[in-house]
Prior knowledge:
Layout: E1 3-7, H1 11-23, E2 27-31, H2 34-43, E3 48-52, H3 65-75, E4 81-85, H4 90-98, E5 103-106, H5 111-125, E6 140-141, E7 144-146, E8 152-155, E9 158-161, H6 164-175, E10 181-182, H7 183-191, H8 197-202, H9 209-227, E11 233-238, E12 242-247
Parallel strand pairs: 1-2, 1-3, 3-4, 4-5
Antiparallel strand pairs: 6-7, 7-8, 8-9, 10-12, 11-12
Helix pairs in contact: 2-3, 6-9
The protein binds calcium ion.
Amino acid sequence: MAHLLLVEDDELLRDGLCAQLMHAGHTVHAAGDGAQAQDVIAFTRLDGVVLDLGLPPVQGLAMDGIVVLRWIRRRLPHLPVLVLTARDDIDDRVAGLNAGADDYLTKPFDMAELLARLAAMLRRSRMPAFGGSLQTDAPRAHRLRLDPQLPMGWLGEDVMELTHREWSLLGLLLKQLGQVVGREEVLAVWQTQAPEGVASGAGGGGASGAGAGSNALEVYVHRLRRKLQGSGLNIRNVRGLGYLLELQAP
Ligand code: CA
């Protein structure tokens, strides 16, 4: 049973699909446009997405399924996505597959076929050869790989020298690639580790305890960004929330 996101602007169809997916045992988040879909994806760990390609603009900006799919692929290269196309239009299907869809269905479709294709797509995504374990178990993405036990990593063939805190911070970001990791979550993990020199020095100037932690976090993020230069990965600051590891656009 999977955590799914259903993106469909047709309310009747969305409600109907949602009910049937839930009946099949899945947990379903529903979104009516691309912006809602982005919100769910940023804050939810998902196993798969069912994405309608014909979506309405958001605040005057084009935001169809292809735009959403490209956005997903930049953040979560391995998240399985099945696209729904309204027309039996080969261009539409090709565009969807080129933008990174794992499978497609043409409307109208049979619910049994959607469930079968979803199941097959989720099965494939769990096989390591398809990168399925990347999001949850093995701490690696793109050319970056972290040792699961020791504070070290590799960028391609190059060894990355990491302190304990850099390693645990990068590990948290990597396990939730494309999703926001809260400051508190990082600080809570750090509290279980021995302090490092830079942490106490960074929070000077009479800052409170919590402020000192946040300042130290910024220092570590800055250092990790430098170490990730040229890796194709970037740590983005999501104001007021935390940090997010993402693939840079090619
Ligand atoms: Ca539609």
